[in-house]
Amino acid sequence: MAEMARNKLLRQIQALKFAILDVGLYLDGHPDNQKALRYFNQMKAKLETAVSEYEAAFGPLTMLQNNSETTWHWVAAPWPWEMEG
Prior knowledge:
Order of helices and strands: HH
Radius of gyration: 15 Å
Distance between the termini: 15 Å
Low-confidence stretches: none
Structural class: mainly alpha
Largest sheet: none
Shape: elongated
Mean pLDDT: 87
Number of strands: 0
Helix content: 55-70%
C-alpha cells in the first residue's frame, strides 16, 4: 500500500512540475498574463505541498532537500528512480 501511495505522489509531483514548466514557458512570451501567472502560483503551491507530503512520508527527493545538519538522509531509502516500475 505504501508503494502505491509513493508512486501516486511521484506522478503528482511530475505532473505539477510539467504544468509549471509549461506555463512558465508561456509566461516567457506573455509576462503580463495575470490568469497564467495565477495558474503558475497555484501549481507552485500545490507542488510545494506535494513535495512536503512526499518527503514527510518517504524522505528527500533530492540531496538538496536533506534538511538535517547531523544526518545524511539522502541515502537512507531507495532513491525515486530505484523503485520498481
